[in-house]
From TrEMBL:
Residues 1-22 form the signal peptide. It comes from Telluria antibiotica. The keyword Cytoplasm does not apply. This is Rhamnogalacturonan acetylesterase. Residues 402-423 are annotated as: Disordered. Keywords: Hydrolase, Signal. It holds the Pfam family Lipase_GDSL_2. Residues 180-334 form the SGNH hydrolase-type esterase domain. The keyword Repeat does not apply. InterPro entries: Galactose-bd-like_sf (IPR008979), RhgT-like (IPR037459), SGNH_hydro (IPR013830), SGNH_hydro_sf (IPR036514).
Length: 423
């Protein structure tokens, strides 16, 4: 309790600091006409180049009918992004994603001539570690497919049925950070049909806290240490920041390889993470891995990660840290959807080829809600940033037919790394 109280105080101080005016804000205006004072005009010809330092990603443009990307060179850190949405000539519906498909704003509707202003907080990062060295990125996955997550710029995806952005203002923000460490079910997946709860999480948080997703496909607690992802996180951490950690799917391979197990090395590696986060003033939160999709004859989920979920729970109890039982929440969710209905929550990279481990946008959206519910129930201080209208019951998930987050333009048939034994 003492640790959580200190964290809550640190969150409050950081939130107050975030309201300070930023002298180095970047402001851009889209569309016809003269831009407002202090804004830089962006037209269909304003293509990003390193020399310019901002612009539309090549091959995309704001035509009102297709998604497009806008990038701005920025140092590593957290930023407040304020967008004014709307179209003078027609009704519009705009969704905004950041970097690699992190959902920031969902289907903001504006009437013809209406202007609506929205704000969100986003994290920009590089591989460099403050005290020396850098994250050992996977080549080519992270250096090519996921390069937008590591470059020195912020990329915004403007999507929707009729996407319309009038202005974008970006300013540095001194705010709390919620760091994520995990595997392919957590990390920012670069292309459809794959997605993760980590990508959907920002949608359910108010402005004033940034989500920094350092998860990566195919990884374990051991990889987090060896590839220096943990080092990167704690080097960027401020007192009061939160770290959500979810591994388990790939850790199972260590049993087959004779290199560990859930109640030995797995728990020891959890402790390494908890100790490191605490040493830097952060609050660690342990999350058990969601289940894979598999049902018995009675319609109950077949547990495939029980030992790892139990080990995660035991570690949280013994180390006195908050625990989110996503394993149990996911089983409730899948059973509510049923053996057939649950297929809609999992990625289908090709017709008739369902991936029973990795999720699509709908499944990730529901699991993100489960994580948010877990944050609230565990009384993690960062739960103060949950959006006001949040509500979720995994036994009564959102109807699949009502889900309308627009897919991103990029698509792949390549399965995320790891978990080979459960294809």
């Amino acid at each position: 309790m003492h640790t959580i109280t200190r964290a809550a105080c640190a969150l409050l101080v950081a939130a107050c600091a975030a309201n300070a005016p930023a002298a180095d804000a970047r402001q851009f205006a889209f569309g016809p006409g003269k831009p407002p004072a202090g804004y830089t005009a962006v037209t269909a010809d304003t293509v990003y180049t390193p020399a310019r330092g901002y612009g539309l990603e090549p091959g995309t443009a704001p035509d009102g009918a297709h998604p497009y990307y806008f990038s701005v060179d920025l140092p590593e850190g957290n930023y407040t992004v304020t967008v004014t949405l709307g179209d003078d000539t027609a009704p519009a519906t705009t969704t905004v994603k950041a970097e690699l498909r992190r959902l920031m704003l969902e289907n903001v509707a504006t009437a013809k001539g209406q202007a609506v202003t929205k704000t969100f907080t986003v994290n920009v990062r590089t591989p460099q570690i403050a005290n020396g060295g850098e994250v050992k990125l996977k080549v080519p996955r992270e250096t090519v497919d996921e390069a937008w997550n590591w470059d020195r710029r912020l990329t915004l995806e403007i999507n929707g049925a009729h996407p319309a952005v009038r202005t974008i203002a970006i300013a540095p923000a001194t705010v709390p950070t919620m760091f994520l460490l995990g595997d392919s079910t957590v990390c920012d997946q670069p292309a459809e049909p794959y997605a993760s709860w980590g990508q959907m999480l920002p949608r359910f948080l108010k402005p004033g806290i940034a989500v920094a997703n350092h998860g990566e496909s195919g990884e374990t607690y051991r990889d987090s240490i060896a590839r220096r992802r943990l080092d990167k996180v704690v080097s960027a951490m401020k007192p009061g920041d939160v770290v959500l950690m979810q591994f388990g799917h790939n850790d199972q391979k260590q049993i087959k390889e004779g290199k560990g197990g859930p109640f030995t090395t797995y728990r020891a590696e959890i402790k390494v993470h908890v100790d490191a986060v605490r040493a830097h003033g952060g609050l660690p939160v342990i999350v058990s891995s969601m289940e894979r999709r598999g049902f018995d004859a009675d319609g109950h989920v077949i547990p495939s990660l029980k030992d790892y979920a139990d080990a995660a729970r035991q570690s949280a109890q013994e180390l006195h840290v908050p625990f989110i039982d996503l394993n149990a929440l996911s089983m409730t969710l899948y059973e509510a959807l049923g053996p057939e209905g649950s297929k809609a929550a999992f990625a289908e990279p090709a017709p008739g080829r369902l991936d029973n481990t990795h999720h699509d946008n709908y499944g990730s959206y529901e699991l993100a809600k489960a994580v948010v519910l877990g944050l609230r129930d565990a009384k993690v201080p960062a739960a103060a940033y949950i959006v006001d209208d949040f509500a979720f019951d995994p036994a009564h998930p959102d109807p699949v037919a009502a889900f309308a987050v627009p897919p991103s333009p990029h698509r792949t048939a390549q399965r995320p790394l790891g978990d080979e034994a459960h294809r």
